[in-house]
């Protein structure tokens, strides 16, 4: 609980209009895309780094948790107030401060929605490549906290690759600047890369300097239909062998196709067991050449059909259907657990066979989709929590899934982070000494453990 005197001080610091304490007002800030729910004691809307600094100093004095929150689109519970306390939401940090076409950088506050930044830089023929499926609702700060990847990661990399520097408030209240605004910089430890992916446990990031690149002059979107997932992933391997690197290379299995069939806007035959959404970009001659090579590879690999979007609106419709897969699979069951594992690309066919067997073993629908180009597959275990015979199986399914992924030299999280939902499985992938090193880093940043407690570590830190 936050003491009443601390709540009064918060209202004095921020103004009463920027502090919520009524239970009805708090509820939306206690949940996220996991659909789990934990009630905070209060919610604050700071407006600048100094506001956050004062909040954190007060939290250390009064010993209450502080939980940073972006847009609430996280899938591992990283912004949930699991021990109560104060949620600080970054809604007011919503300004694009600078777009510099000559130095190819942008400075933005962390509450800016990802697609808003992308649209603004593209007006200047620039490009910010990180493209999570939640791009229209997720914030830059949330992307940084989880080191989001997304649809274009196969060619352009992940969020970390575009963060040059930042302003951050430490849990003890100090405001620091990290990184550079230049193409190079190796002065001291790389705190910028440490904070990217730290899931709001080491600092509250208020603004960032991001690297931009020139906007590709041409893109081409294609869809290939296959009888099985194995045939689709073997096609991905064929592209790799021929040194083709698409901008995006997305896989949907049969359950996912059935969930978004109407949104695809084109006929998909019932015998289709998988589809690939493929995009290439670059000079027009290159996209035309690569598009033809990809078509040939798909047809040689037994594709049931191949379609190239001739208009931008047709391409947009395909990608919108892909972005809607996650909510659409709820048609199969009212509840789900979503995991974002990564396996080596060369073992995706084997992994697909394993998922089929796992679903049959536990008699649960398991839908798989995601970034086939880099082996990052979103595995959705669907169930009904009101049916105990289904709900009781889920933890066993997830643990068996993770054991197989690690046996295949993969990882249990490619872009969603550990947060709350995967903390119990952390020691399946990391050794105890490695976890303890991380815990010591957390302690150095946050001696009293007030910032986003209960996340990442499988025991109290």
Secondary-structure map:
Elements: H1 4-14, E1 19-20, H2 23-26, E2 42-44, H3 49-62, E3 66-69, E4 86-89, E5 96-100, E6 105-109, H4 114-122, E7 126-127, H5 140-146, H6 153-156, E8 163-169, E9 175-179, H7 191-195, E10 204-211, E11 213-214, E12 218-226, H8 229-241, E13 248-253, H9 254-260, E14 274-282, H10 284-300, E15 305-308, H11 312-323, H12 325-328, E16 335-342, H13 348-362, E17 366-371, E18 376-383, H14 388-391, H15 394-407, H16 426-429, H17 432-445
Parallel strand pairs: 2-4, 3-4
Antiparallel strand pairs: 1-2, 5-6, 6-10, 7-11, 8-9, 8-10, 12-14, 12-15, 13-14, 13-17, 16-18, 17-18
Helix pairs in contact: 1-3, 8-13, 13-15
Verbal overview:
The chain has 17 helices and 18 strands. With 461 residues, it is α+β, with helices and mostly antiparallel strands. Helix 1 packs antiparallel against helix 3, helix 8 (229-241) packs antiparallel against helix 13 (348-362) and helix 13 (348-362) runs antiparallel to helix 15. The protein is globular and about 70 Å long. The two termini are 19 Å apart. The relative contact order is 0.12. The model has no long low-confidence stretch (mean pLDDT 95).
Overall geometry comes to globular
Q: What's the β-strand tally?
A: 18
Distance between the termini: 19 Å
Strand order across the largest sheet: 15-12-14-13-17-18-16
Q: What is the mean predicted local confidence, pLDDT?
A: 95
Low-confidence stretches: none
CATH topology grouping of the largest domain: Uridine Diphospho-n-acetylenolpyruvylglucosamine Reductase, domain 3
Reading off the top of the CATH hierarchy, the class of the largest domain is best stated as Alpha Beta
Helix/sheet category: alpha+beta
> What is the CATH architecture term of the largest domain?
2-Layer Sandwich
Q: How many domain units?
A: 4
Number of helical regions? 17
Largest sheet: 7 strands, antiparallel
**In percent, how helical is the residue content?**
25-40%
The radius of gyration over CA amounts to 23 Å
Beta fraction: 15-25%
